[in-house]
Write a structure and sequence with these properties.
55% of the residues lie in helices and 10% in strands. The protein is of the alpha+beta class and 137 residues long. Strands 1-2-4-3 form a 4-stranded antiparallel beta sheet. The chain starts with a helix and ends with a helix.
């Protein structure tokens, strides 16, 4: 019984998933979500360009949940990530996502969970403040 429970999804749950995924509302939800994610990515990219013009956005993604920033040579991803957390910004040091040595220091910034675009603009402002703190050290 445990084996069946661990390896298979219960039939009522499967039926509920099929019902949800086959309704017109699901397609509307996906389109609305894609639009919201594109807007969040653009908001964050614009704010980063304004606040941190010497940092490089590797590319504006067509989809996804993250932006990648390449840092100037004098900064490390770990130092920036640690300092950003002290300023209330949670992001990921990029080296963890490269299968070999990264060509440069990168940050991985998530934008999907922001409740409001203003949060993304504020995060970019705080990240710039964190970067100024690092320059003074």
């Amino acid at each position: 019984m445990r084996l069946v429970d661990d390896f298979f999804v219960a039939r009522p749950l499967q039926e509920a998933a099929v019902e949800l995924l086959s309704t017109p509302a699901w397609d509307r939800h996906l389109r609305a979500l894609a639009t919201a994610l594109r807007e969040r990515a653009t908001t964050l990219a614009t704010a980063l360009g304004r606040e941190l013009p010497d940092w490089t956005l590797t590319r504006q993604p067509a989809g996804g949940l993250h932006l990648w920033l390449r840092l100037p040579a004098h900064l490390t991803d770990i130092a920036v990530a640690d300092t950003a957390r002290l300023h209330g910004v949670s992001l990921n040091a990029g080296h963890r996502y490269f299968p070999t040595d990264a060509p440069a220091a990168h940050l991985r910034l998530g934008f999907a969970a922001a409740a409001d675009p203003a949060e993304l603009t504020e995060a970019a402002r705080r990240l710039a403040t964190a970067a100024r703190t690092l320059r003074r050290r």
